Each structure stands twice: as structure tokens, then as C-alpha cells.
Amino acid sequence: MKNIVSRWTAQVQRDENGECIIIFPPEFCEQTDQREGDLYDFDVVDGRIVMTFLKHAAAIRQYPIAILPGDDQTAYSVYFPDVPGCFSAGDSLSESIKNAREALELHFEALTEWPDPSWIDDHVNKAEFVGCVWTVARIPEYHG
Q: Who wins on pLDDT, 63 or 29?
């Protein structure tokens, strides 16, 4: 991957009426070519918005993930119906979702061809996923 991903951090502040406003760094505003990609992801970290942009991304694939809730003694288990051999976990639902995307990205680095994503509806009623919570992991497909 040759410099196709860029990350920018913006501050979240409140105006005189208490409304949230986003303050972008000057480098973001000056380097408009950095904004020509698609917004891939954003997160709030320590009161700041961290935005990830992709340049020339061919696609963003959405893989269904099944999360079996944990408890005080057991971690949340993450399953990928479309990606055999890929597993993840987390101590909370939020951590499980974050870890799921990272697990997929690492798993896909070793593959020459990615499996096609399916729909959650294709799996939600299967016996092996009873009790699971469903979401998707959005993974950018890079073409060098």
C-alpha cells in the first residue's frame, strides 16, 4: 500500500451556545488533495475526531460478523461466517467490533483473493449463531 491512507485528527469544541463544532487542522485544509478519497472511517479519541480517508479505493466490502455476548467470566466471541479460520474476541461489544475489523484486515493481508461478503440475513437463523448480535465490518479493498 503506497500512501493511499491518510489520517487526520480534528478537535471537537463547543461554541457560545453549547453546540458541538469540529475544528479541522490547517494541514487538512491546505492539502485538499488529501480529501479526494472516500471517508472510510472515523472515531472519537480523547475528545478528538480521527478520520481515515482512502485515495483511489476500489471498494469497501462489508463482511457480516456475529458476536456472541460474554459475561464477567467470558470474553465476547466474534465469528466471521464468510471467512473460515478468522476469529476474534473482546471484553466488550465495542472492543469486539473494533477487534473484528483488525482481525479481518490482518487475515486478508495473507490472502491473494478475498472471499465475497454475504448478507447478515444469510446467516442470522443458523443454529451456530443463536444468541449472537450482528453487525458488519467495513474493509477497504486496495488495488495497488
A: 63
User: Which helix H or strand E contains 94, and what residues bound it?
Assistant: helix 93-109
On whether the pTM is more than 0.70, the answer is no
What is the rounded CA–CA span in Å between residue 83 and residue 87?
9
- For cell 457560545, the residue is 16
The count of other CB atoms within 10 Å of the CB of residue 91 is: 12
The CA distance from 8 to 49, in Å, is 8
User: Exposure of 54 by Cβ count < 10 A (0-12 exposed, 13-18 middle, 19+ buried)?
Assistant: buried
Q: For all residues of the chain together, what is the average pLDDT?
A: 79
pLDDT tier, 41 (very low <50, low <70, confident <90, very high otherwise)? low
Q: Nearest 5°: phi and psi at 99?
A: -65, -30
Average of per-residue pLDDT across 76-101: 93
Domains in the chain (CATH in brackets) are 5-54 (no CATH), 59-141 (3.30.160.250)
Cell of 39: 471517508
Name the nearest CA neighbour of 45 among 90, 84, 8, 5. Answer: 8
